[in-house]
């Protein structure tokens, strides 16, 4: 069976631009959640978010791309370049059709779309940008990345909310197994504008707390919802033999994946999250006792937290494996969240440390060994990443040391 490895990481997050800045902030437990500054959120019931700071698109992209791209896509293009640089690869120099890209998306280019709708309403149709035809679209990150890097191999986009990042990485692994030389996969998301904010609030899952330290508390007794954020990560995936032949630095192996869909609400049937966890471990040929850490979904909705804790305990036993939710520092980045968790898991494997869950304390009745406040140093060889998206999407990803 073909082994797929990760050789490059491109990270853009509320806590840092690039792998080094992000990882340093994460291990320090730095909180990237703060009052929204991108628009006036004072009239909304929720006003906190994880915003990417210090990113100026003109510093990273050619000027011709700026008028045709949403903020989300600009971040994705920068993260893609950082991932290729980290891997030491230029996909344009590879054989034609050998390099592809799969990204996840949950919203598309909301900010671009809102601006053009305002132009339409206030000025008329002749003031709407022609780029609106694609800048808003779910697949725009995949399209712009593939064009910029001359990637004519397998491409795609996964739309399954928070679960999408894991699904995209798994789909890229399938393409490697089918013969692709290299794939770029993951997710970068942003919808922090007044139009996007209404969509977030409609879920009923957004925290209304106004203290960044008390707003996003997964598994805590006083959990009352999540905080939205923006950013994510893109990963370079290669077939292991080819990667080693070129002397690539290998972060880890994409060892297993499984996805399930929960039954409709009110059906009386239980969640299928446990099946996703067991399926990913089986796909990786990993026994639960071999897993060193679980990166949790961490919905911070009491009912959903109980479901996740029950699934973890059913697979591993109560308190049998350390669990963490580093997205308490960034907010939930939707399609970018799991890709960022994957990057963190690979860095955990590299450095032998589990990043913390800040501010939260696990309710005793959940039976979880939650790593809180400070990192926990221990050898990490196998990590399980859990993700759930609105609509019942469940996805689990297993990463292991090479």
In short:
By secondary structure, the chain is of the alpha/beta class. The chain contains eleven helices and 16 strands.
Name the average pLDDT. Answer: 95
- CATH 2nd-level architecture of the largest domain: 3-Layer(aba) Sandwich
Q: Extract low-pLDDT stretches.
A: none
Instruction: State the domain count.
Output: 2
The biggest beta sheet, please?
12 strands, mixed
The CATH class assignment of the largest domain is Alpha Beta
What's the shape? globular
Q: Helix- and strand-based class?
A: alpha/beta
Q: What is the CATH superfamily of the largest domain?
A: Thiolase/Chalcone synthase
End-to-end Cα distance:
15 Å
β-sheet strand percentage: 15-25%
**Radius of gyration in whole Å, from Cα?**
20 Å
Order of helices and strands: EEHEEHEHHHEHEHEHEHEHEHEEEEE
The CATH topology annotation of the largest domain reads as: Peroxisomal Thiolase, Chain A, domain 1
Q: Give the helix level as a range of percent.
A: 25-40%
